[in-house]
Amino acid sequence: MKNDRYIIAGISALCLLLIIVTSVNSSFLMPLRSGAGFFLVPMEKGVNAVGSGLFGNIQAYSDLRDAQEENARLNERVANLTEENNRLSSETYELERLRELYKLDQEYMNYPKVAARVIAKDSGNWFQVFRIDKGASDGIRADMNVIANGGLIGIVTDVGQNYATVRAIIDDDSNVSAMSQRTGETCNVSGSMELFEDGRLGLDHVRKDADIAEGDRIVTSNISDVYLPGLFIGYASALSTDSNNVTKSGTVIPVGQFDNIREVLIITKLKGEEMQNQDDSDTKRSASEHNDVPQEETQAETEPVIDPIAERKTEKASETSEESSSSGETVEEETGSNG
């Protein structure tokens, strides 16, 4: 370690001496200057080469470090922009879904509704049974109809305090009393996971001569026990006469999408309540129609009823009474005169 310092010190002293020698402009020192120049030029070239190499490496390292820092900043910026783009894309998709949901809400604006988000579903590719984030505390009850994606999706089967379970119309246990919107001919739409692999539902219980044609809009019927009337299900397809030659059947292409359900609308009016309201309306209507008659009858009862026959009998009785009275007075007068 000490030897290294001595060597460096010696070389430094030698370099200093040579610099002084080459700096003095004297003929006496010319040979020494020439020799020093012969010795110093290669050394300067070496030192310059080493210095240039070191400077280049240092500069390259500095540039590399700057580039790495810039790359890190750019990567962070790209990550932020990607995250923002994903968020905006998600919000755009959500906005489109909510617009569709609002459009559906306006289409069935005569029914009160509550919006809900899907929070879970059964295993499998399709949303045949799924759970929503609204429950009894939000007024949700069993048998309430659920709509989304342009039409009927399913029905509430189980209700918790803050959640509810929905069975979709594609489920094997689902049966919906329906009808052709064009003609009112009734039918039944049955769920079938086997059929839905081809994007279809079952269409059955159709009379052979029923006027249901290919492409007819199929909606829930008025005679359904649990489904409100007029909810769009899909389009009739592939109708053919059954082997019994009495009925015909086919399939329905559902309007709803069951592979990705995010938000739904729950109609908070039950079919029983709808029927009760209709009965109450009919009762009120009947009562008002019936109430018009009692009012007329009451007025008639307050007015005197003139019976011509009774009046004639009364007049005759009065005349007879007057005649009897006159006869009695005549007899009394005759008796008095006789006396």
UniProtKB/TrEMBL annotation:
Region (Disordered): 272-339
Keywords attached to this entry: Cell shape, Coiled coil
Compositionally skewed regions (Basic and acidic residues) per UniProt: 281-293, 309-319
GO biological process: regulation of cell shape
Gene Ontology cellular-component terms listed: plasma membrane
InterPro entries referenced in this protein's UniProt entry, alphabetically: Cell/Rod_1 (IPR042177), Cell/Rod_MreC_2 (IPR042175), MreC (IPR007221), MreC_beta-barrel_core (IPR055342)
Name of one Pfam family that matches: MreC
Signal peptide feature range: none
Start and end residues of each Rod shape-determining protein MreC beta-barrel core domain: 118-267
Coiled coil: 57-101
Biased composition (Acidic residues): 330-339
PANTHER family on file: CELL SHAPE-DETERMINING PROTEIN MREC
Similarity field: Belongs to the MreC family.
Name of protein: Cell shape-determining protein MreC
UniProt organism field: [Clostridium] aminophilum
Lineage: Bacteria, Bacillati, Bacillota, Clostridia, Lachnospirales
